[in-house]
């Protein structure tokens, strides 16, 4: 069985990518109803952080088999 | 209704989550071949997997919303739930109680009562636990549908049925294993999904010191105002916190509630099982950053008229649970809103899965096999576990509809824990550490503790007695009454158990080997350096706890 950490990595890669791309889109097309502190672009860097974190988890546990 | 407004990116994230957990359920089914796999995940998990699942089983969305709202209402005192109200009990479980639980190879907490005492004590606890689990599971489902309806605008029935069906599918496929997998995923989603709420709040207000400076002093301290109940937001004394929350409710929940303890049973060996609650304790101490800080940020913003932030009102009453969703709406752009909603969804659904997986185990081993079919085969038990999962989910949905038509049932949640868990802790403590406690002493003590807690709840609710006679102080909040009621229930169970044990037949000492301290040889873990032992990490955990309490005194 593959390690749970591998699945956690895959999920964070997927979700981080979506949030990062959504952040890029908002950067190019700023939404009309901007949120408070939106100038900090939390979606952009948080999505990127999730993506990197997920990649590290997935790569470190890619070949691991438990049980 | 104040909806968060979901964009396509948010919907995509929610869809990814549902696809993922269903996929994991299907993937894990091939590894779930025996009843041991289904009910205790084959006893093969590492301490990290079991530890994060142990914590996550308690970290439901109801807790996240409720504790953020409670911080708005009571201030820093809510941190006691995460520190003194959890850590000593978790460390005690790992160091002193887990050897008895794990080494007796039981499948459930009621199973220990059978070995240590007798069948009737086991069945009494099993029936109470099964009822409590279904009730909590249904209320959890109701709360989820309510939150999704209020803040996301989803249809009440559709959101409840879809999430219940999803949980039913993946728990039926692979039991505790899939419940643990989804709890770990929930752990990461909650941290990634909600961390920014507090972080952005602190940035907006201008730093942590500024947050504390903006709230009333009685809401900013942890202990320094506990000498006088009128000087703190929770209207409670230090004695109520220490005896009610820190001792009875905390130890009652963390050391005997099968929902959390079941995760430690899934560990691969005794050391991993002992490390399970100790690893969880470090993460538990960090959770206040998510919920307490968010609650304080919400309070600081609400006190500033220029911020434009205010909690919702339902029929003139402040809806404290709206604090967290309103902060998400304030700060989160598209994409992140989907992550925040998914974190709450994951919390609700993992909580549901945790309750159902504990219910199916207790039903199958402690009610079905104990009372109905003692000779059931492994295959039949596995089949019964799957049936119990589906039936448990259906009953939970029924409870959710009941809760919908009778909203004050939500008030009973805290009370339910003090009915079942608080007296059980006295039974367990005496059972594990005192050889001469008799089966009849345990049974009648447990019954008296549960009954007295229930009676005190009714007596305060219907004003048969003055709450001050329970709390020993002239003023008290509902929370303070809860803490003190738990203390009295524990004490009554403790005293009745000892008293009845004096006059009733004890079990022979040779039958209690491995179940009671003093009759159990210490199990060697081999030549493990002290710095790798549960004792070392337990001490570190307690030191961190003391430092946190002094810092926020």
Return Rg of chain A in Å.
Answer: 15 Å
- Report, as a whole number of angstroms, the end-to-end distance of chain B: 39 Å
Portion in strands of chain B? under 5%
Largest interface: A-B, 29 and 35 residues
What order do the SSEs of chain B take from the amino end to the carboxyl end, as H and E?
Answer: HHHHHHHHHHHHHHEEHHHHHHHH
Number of helices of chain A: 2
Number of helical regions of chain B: 22
Q: Major sheet of chain A: size, sense and barrel closure?
A: none
Largest sheet of chain B: 2 strands, antiparallel
Multimer state: heterodimer
Coarse morphology of chain B = globular
> Helix/strand-derived class of chain B?
mainly alpha
SS class of chain A: mainly alpha
Helix content of chain A: 55-70%
Provide mean pLDDT of chain A, rounded: 91
Uncertain parts of chain A: none
Which stretches of chain B are low in confidence, meaning pLDDT under 50 for 5 or more residues running? none
How much β-strand is present in the residues of chain A?
under 5%
How do the helices and strands follow one another from N- to C-terminus of chain A? Answer: HH
* Number of DSSP strand runs of chain A: 0
Q: For the largest sheet of chain B, list the strands in their spatial order.
A: 1-2
Structure characterization notes:
The complex is a heterodimer of chains A (67) and B (553). By secondary structure, chain A is an all-alpha fold. Chain A contains 2 helices and no strands. The longest helix of chain A has 25 residues, at 4-28. The radius of gyration of chain A is 15 Å and the shape is rod-shaped. The mean pLDDT of chain A is 91. With 553 residues, chain B is mostly helical. Chain B is built from 22 helices and 2 strands. Chain B has a two-stranded antiparallel sheet with strand order 1-2. The two termini of chain B are 39 Å apart. Classes of the chains: A mainly alpha (67), B mainly alpha (553).
């Amino acid at each position: 069985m593959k390690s749970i950490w591998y699945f956690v990595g895959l999920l964070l890669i997927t979700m981080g990518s979506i949030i990062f791309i959504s952040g890029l889109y908002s950067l190019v097309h700023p939404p009309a109803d901007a949120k408070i502190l939106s100038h900090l672009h939390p979606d952009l860097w948080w999505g990127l952080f999730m993506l990197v974190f997920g990649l590290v988890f997935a790569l470190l546990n890619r070949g691991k088999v438990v049980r | 209704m104040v909806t968060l407004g979901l964009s396509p990116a948010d919907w995509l994230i929610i869809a990814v989550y549902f696809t993922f957990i269903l996929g994991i359920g299907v993937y894990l089914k091939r590894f779930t071949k025996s009843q041991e796999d289904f009910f205790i995940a084959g006893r093969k998990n590492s301490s990290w997997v079991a530890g994060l699942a142990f914590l996550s089983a308690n970290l439901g969305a109801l807790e996240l919303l409720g504790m953020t709202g409670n911080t708005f209402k009571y201030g820093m005192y809510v941190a006691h739930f995460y520190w003194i109200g959890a850590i000593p009990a978790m460390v005690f479980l790992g160091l002193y109680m887990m050897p008895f639980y794990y080494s007796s190879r039981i499948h459930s907490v009621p199973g220990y009562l059978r070995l240590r005492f007798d069948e009737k004590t086991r069945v009494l606890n099993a029936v109470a636990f099964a009822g409590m689990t279904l009730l909590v599971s249904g209320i959890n489902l109701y709360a989820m549908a309510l939150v999704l309806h209020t803040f996301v605008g989803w249809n009440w029935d559709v959101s409840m049925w879809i999430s219940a069906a999803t949980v039913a599918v993946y728990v039926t496929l692979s039991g505790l294993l899939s419940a643990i997998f989804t709890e770990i995923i929930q752990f990461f989603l909650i941290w990634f999904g909600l961390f920014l709420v507090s972080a952005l709040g602190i940035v907006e207000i201008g730093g942590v010191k500024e947050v504390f400076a903006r709230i009333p002093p009685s809401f900013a301290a942890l202990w320094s105002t506990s000498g006088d109940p009128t000087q703190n937001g929770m209207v409670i004394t230090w004695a109520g916190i220490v005896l009610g929350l820190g001792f009875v409710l905390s130890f009652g929940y963390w050391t005997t509630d099968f929902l959390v303890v079941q995760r430690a049973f899934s560990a691969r060996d005794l050391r991993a099982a002992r490390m399970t609650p100790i690893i969880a304790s470090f993460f538990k101490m960090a959770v206040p950053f998510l919920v307490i800080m968010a609650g304080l940020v919400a309070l600081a913003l609400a006190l500033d008229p220029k911020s434009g932030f205010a909690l919702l009102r339902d029929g003139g009453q402040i809806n404290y649970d709206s604090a967290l969703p309103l902060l998400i709406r304030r700060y989160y752009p598209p994409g992140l809103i989907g992550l925040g909603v998914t974190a709450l969804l994951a919390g609700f659904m993992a909580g549901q899965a945790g309750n159902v997986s504990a219910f199916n185990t207790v039903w199958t081993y402690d009610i079905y096999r104990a009372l109905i079919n003692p000779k059931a085969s492994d295959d039949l038990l596995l089949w019964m576990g799957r049936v119990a999962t589906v039936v448990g989910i259906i009953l939970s949905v029924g409870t959710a509809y009941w809760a919908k038509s009778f909203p004050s049932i939500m008030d009973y949640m805290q009370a339910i824990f003090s009915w079942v868990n608080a007296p059980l802790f006295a039974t367990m403590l005496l059972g594990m550490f005192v050889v001469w406690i008799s089966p009849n002493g345990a049974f009648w003590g447990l019954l008296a503790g549960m009954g007295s807690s229930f009676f005190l709840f009714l007596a305060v609710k219907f004003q048969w007695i003055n709450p001050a006679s329970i709390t020993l102080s002239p003023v008290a909040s509902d929370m303070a009454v809860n803490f003190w009621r738990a203390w009295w229930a524990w004490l009554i169970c403790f005293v009745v158990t000892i008293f009845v044990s004096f006059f009733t037949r004890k079990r022979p000492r040779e039958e209690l080997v491995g179940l009671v301290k003093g009759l159990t040889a210490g199990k060697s873990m081999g030549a493990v350096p002290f710095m790798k032992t549960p004792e070392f990490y337990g001490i570190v955990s307690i030191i961190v706890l003391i430092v946190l309490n002094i810092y926020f005194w």
